[in-house]
Each structure stands twice: as C-alpha cells, then as structure tokens.
Amino acid sequence: MKKSFKTLFLIVAMFCLAAFAVGCSSEEGSSKPSNDEGSSEETTDTEKGSEAASDYPTKPITVVVPAGAGGDTDANARLLGKYLEEELGQTIVISNVTGAGGTVGAREVLDADADGHTVLFFHNSLLLNRILGLVDFSYDSFKLAGIPVLDQGNTFMVAGDSEFENLQDMVEFARANPGEVSIATEVGGFTHLQLLALEKDQGIELNIVDVGGASDKIAALLGGHIDIVPTSLGLVKDYVESGDMRSLGIMAKERVDLMPDVPTFIEQDVNTSFEKFFFYGFGPETPDEFVEKFSKAVENVVNNEQYVAEAEKFLVSPTFMNPEETFNYIKETEEFYIELNEE
C-alpha cells in the first residue's frame, strides 16, 4: 500500500513538473511574439513620423505677416520666402493680416489647422501685446521654428530739411518745448516702446501720434505731417540717398558694419538701445517633425550666400537661431521689456 502510494505520488509529482515546464515554455513562447508585435508597432509609428516629415510640405505654405505690405516685416518675409521655396519645394504665400498691433494675424495662426502649412512671421511687437495686457498669448504660445534675421538699424528719421541735425538737437528742443515734437508710431507696437524709453531716459515729453504701420509712417514724414519717424534704416535708405530723409542715429549698442557712418544713440548720450528680431512660429499642435524640417530649411537659407547678399541690401543681419536658442533669446528680451514697462 505504502509502495503504491509512493509510486502514485511520484507519478503525480512528475506530471506536475512536466505541466509546469510546458506552461513556462508556452508562456515564453507566447510572450515573445507579443514583444515582437510591440516592437513592430513602435517601429511603424516611427516610420510613419519619418514618412510624414519627408513628405512635408504637401501644399503651399502660408506665411502670415501681421503687418501691411511695404514695411520691413513684409520685405524680410518675402525675401526669405523666395529662398524657402527652393528649400521646401512648395510655394510660399505671404498673407498680410493687419490689426490690433499684430494680434489679429498671430491669432489667425493659432486658430489654423496644425498641419504645418500656416506659419507666423513677426517680431518684438508680439511681446508687447501681452505685456500691455492686450492679449493673453505671446511667443511661448507657438512652436518656434527659429530666428533668421536681426535688424540693428532701428532709427529715428527726419526730413532732409529738418532743423534737427542730430539726436541731441531734437532732445534739447523737446526738453524746452514739451509735447511739440511730433513723432509717429503704432500704439502698442515696437516703436511705441522705443519712444517711451526715450522719454523716460531723457526726461522729455513727445507728441506721440498713432499713424499706423511702417508705410503709413513714412508717408506722414514725406508729407510733412510729422517731425520724426522711428523705422528701419534699411527700409528708407533710398530716401536717405535722395536727400529726402536723414537719420538721427541707430539704437544698436555699438556701430554696425553695414552702416558704419551712422552714430548710435548711446554715442549721443541717449541710453536707449533696441534690436529687432524676426521669428517663425507654428501653432502649438503642429507636429515636431514639420517644425524641425521647416527650421532646417530656414537655417539653410540663412547660410545661403545669395540670400545674405540680398538681405544686407536692407541693412539687416542674417542670423540663425534654432528653436531653443530663439526661445531663450526672446524670453530674455521679454524680461527686459517687462522691466521697462514696470519702471
């Protein structure tokens, strides 16, 4: 009986061990295909992303410029667009969307389909719109694709026959005659901040007149309706050459190679310096692969000698910053503007 029980026990034990071994083998066998399946799916997703990026763009890209035609933002966007077409193999359509200091155009990009075919091209004014409480969005609401160009030629222009020979002439007159020097701007825009900083630094009061965008300001000066226009020197260099306009100086921290004969504000004892940057930004849901491909195309353009030669005719400096560098650069600029506004 005991022998029979032992035999039965051994048989059962051997059967259990065999079943356990088969079970383990079965589990290992079933888990392996499962892992392969996961790996296959992961590879497929990656491949899909790569394929999508390689196909992008699949149609014309609309570059929204929140400024009127004929200004420096428009001119830079169109020149860059010409070379981006070569890089991306698609037509670049410039769409001028004016209104509310650029916020209308910026909002249009945020509301567009996030397929990488609508992109913002704008500058410093977007920062001011939020700082001044006009909107609740700014540069950090977009997926930045980089900065392609800097403008260090921000200047104050007067008519060729103006009584102001230099910046100090204007400052001294304004100090003795508060509110009599009329100066054009677009309220809430980049030039508006420049004027407020100048008033604070020199303790003067200017007659700040809102006349609209860049082309409107130039027309106001040429028509004798305004004393001074803050603008980009590259935008009006033809008027300088013809003698219709003169520059009172630029707001760069030091003289610029592209305009070596133009003194800075700082040289004239006015502690005001501003650098204008232009950036590209996509809606926040745009796939990273599309933004990266567009950004690389922008970098290639900035490194194109033909583009550089054409851009320098506008007296601007082609300077590429990648998305991360762009974010940090704009963030630092925003902090400076906030400090100015609080003061």
How would you describe the overall organization of this protein?
With 343 residues, the chain is of the alpha/beta class. Helix content is 49%, strand content 18%. It folds into 2 domains: 61-150 and 275-342, Bordetella uptake gene, domain 1 (D-Maltodextrin-Binding Protein, domain 2); 154-268, Periplasmic binding protein-like II (D-Maltodextrin-Binding Protein, domain 2). The strands form 3 sheets. It has a 6-stranded mixed beta sheet, with helices on both faces. It has a 3-stranded antiparallel beta sheet with strand order 8-5-9, sandwiched between helices. Helix 2 links the parallel strand 1 (61-65) and strand 2 (92-96). Helix 2 crosses helix 9 (288-302). The longest helix is centred in the first third of the chain and has 54 residues, at 2-55. It starts with a helix and ends with a helix.
Q: Which regions are unreliable across 5 or more consecutive residues at pLDDT < 50?
A: 1-41, 43-48
Helix content: 40-55%
Q: Structural class, from helix and strand content?
A: alpha/beta
- CATH class categorisation of the largest domain: Alpha Beta
Spell the H/E element sequence. Answer: HEHEHEHEEHEHEHEHEEHHEH
Shape, please?
globular
Work out the radius of gyration: 31 Å
CATH superfamily of the largest domain, by name, is Bordetella uptake gene, domain 1
Total helical elements: 11
N-end to C-end Cα span: 103 Å
Strands, total number: 11
Strand content: 15-25%
Task: Write down the CATH topology of the largest domain.
Answer: D-Maltodextrin-Binding Protein, domain 2
Mean pLDDT: 86
Major β-sheet annotation: 6 strands, mixed
CATH architecture verdict of the largest domain: 3-Layer(aba) Sandwich
**How many structural domains does the protein architecture include?**
2
Strand order of the largest sheet: 2-1-3-10-4-11
